[in-house]
Amino acid sequence: MPLETTMEPLFDFLQRSPTPWHAMATMSRRLEQAGFRRLEETAPWQLSPGDKVFVTRNDSSLVAMQLPEDRLTALRMIGAHSDSPGLRLKPNAAQTAHGWLQLGVEVYGGALLAPWYDRDLSIAGRVHLLRDDGQVVSVLIDAERPVAMVPSLAIHLDREANNGRTINPQTQMAPILLQGGDKDDFVMLLKRWVHEQHQLGDITILDFELLLYDVQAPQRVGVNQELIASARLDNLLSCFMGLEALLSSDGRQGAAFVANDHEEVGSASMCGAQGPFLGDVLKRVNEQLGEPGEEGYIRLIQASRMISCDNAHALHPNYPEKHDETHGPTLNGGPVIKVNANQRYATNSGTAALFRDLCREAEVPVQTFATRADMGCGSTIGPITATEIGVPTLDVGVPQWAMHSIRETAGADDVDYLIRALTAFVNRRELI
């Protein structure tokens, strides 16, 4: 996909996906438009060779599968995660202080907190409610405009603000929502947004999962527009690239795209990479289109390969000392193979060799990241997925700056590079 035609759908996806639930809804629509059929986990599955299907769990994780015309013997799997660090509302969120209605928040994942100050913030997520006909339903809401902010304290009142001041998320991160309001006003706001967006009658709010997000739109940045800046590039950028690769492929090979929730908090959930979601789907598919039984399932998994996609730390020109001098990926330098001897990444020499060959075939440059030996290393869904289902896996991603900030930066060319490499992977006939 040419770069200029990639940016518009990417930016549209990022804006339509302020939460993991919105991201799943957006990807589900994209799959249905491409001819994929939605499956329900609670219903029997009737699968045929050549089917294109997808299934969601918790409305925040997804597995999409392209099934071959003949017997299923191997899968080309691409993995990503749908969640991003940020601020999530507590259950009893509304609180008042000195004439202001504020919102109590929890920090989700390893968020950089300082960039959240003085931003135009909106609210989005899912709400479970009781309709006037007695039905309990779940709906997505998005205020879609700035409704809150976390104001900074003036430097005149905190002269040490630029000297490494710590931030207390309990006492110093409560967003301002409304002047002169009370706790009932927040419930009325939720009801108003539900009514405006879903045209429901009288409702009772039963529960919600809501988060704050920056309304600033994604943007090309730089004299030559060589950069892209947006919220949630980690890891919606990988979700976009993985899905585009699946949909851009020739459709002949068995392939799967998985987007797991809860990676930023450890992946231990029913829909996270450490949970049974992917394995449940693969077992059901194998029973119908592969070699049934436990041995057949193991043979399928060992003949398959997984590319776990999660962004990599690019060399920061202001902090070059934070990188190993021979493993500092550059923006627009191509996708990054991520390696860690302690298995924080799942890459081994065999899976790395496969990816290097894919990049050669797709005429894409490739880079390598290994963290400094005197620094800790993050992790991804790669080692977790490899541990849970046993599939040979590698970790790759596009390089980026400001990972876990409210606004992150990546290279525009790298989006096209990784889509091309992943498409070559999905089209690859022989994996071993």
Automatic annotation (TrEMBL):
According to its UniProt entry, the protein's GO biological process terms are:
proteolysis
Q: Which positions make up the signal peptide?
A: none
| Keyword annotations from UniProtKB, A to Z | Aminopeptidase, Hydrolase, Metal-binding, Metalloprotease, Protease, Zinc
An example Gene Ontology CC term for this record: cytoplasm
Q: Does the keyword Zinc apply?
A: yes
Pfam families attached here? Peptidase_M18 (PF02127)
Q: What is its EC number?
A: 3.4.11.-
Similarity comment: family membership:
Belongs to the peptidase M18 family.
| Designated name of the protein | M18 family aminopeptidase
Question: Organism, per UniProt?
Answer: Aidingimonas halophila
